[in-house]
Amino acid sequence: MSTNLEIEAKSLIDEKSYRKLVEGKTDKCYTQTNYYLDNKKSELHKKKLGLRVREKDGELELTLKVKQKEGKLEINQLISDKDFFNLKVKSIFPEGEVKIKLLEYEIDVNKLYVFTTLVTIRLDLEYKGCLISIDNSSFSGITDYEVECEADSMEKAKSTLIEFLKENEVPYQENFVSKLKRARDSL
């Protein structure tokens, strides 16, 4: 189990800009699949919580995102294939810190289900001490493109992202809408 504060600035880009940014680096791209969970009443959404299982490099990570004044607190825990199967098929939520936190928010964890899936092809780059992620995401028959910059403050994330995009001659289009919300809104 781990926790971290995620602070990131994001910009939507078009396919042409995406291709330009990943050109010559596609061998460094990797794929991750996010399975988003909520209940039929969308209680997590209403409480400004995000819950996903991310499948990447053969591992499954359960993540609860809790909105903070700046950024989101992420509570992460690795789960087994069996845990994920039990969650998806039998509505049995894995034990651990994520479950404890959800119960604090009075969420009935046995009513959670995977309501949508999002697949991202991602390229991560180090840029001026920040992590830049260039994403091609597909969900509900839609594909969109985004660049994220993760830093220790929103001011630094945004200024670094703008600088990175300007250096690469890609227009900056500020994006406050998370992948989860875009995937949810597409349903």
List descriptors:
187 residues; alpha+beta; Hypothetical Protein Pfu-838710-001; 9-stranded antiparallel beta sheet; 6 helices; 9 strands
What does this structure look like?
The chain is α+β, with helices and mostly antiparallel strands and 187 residues long. It has one domain: Hypothetical Protein Pfu-838710-001 (Beta Barrel), CATH 2.40.320.10. Helix content is 27%, strand content 42%. The chain is built from six helices and nine strands; from the N terminus they run ββαβαβββααβββαα. It has a nine-stranded antiparallel beta sheet, with helices on both faces. The longest helix is centred in the C-terminal third of the chain and has 14 residues. The chain is globular and about 50 Å long. The mean pLDDT is 96.
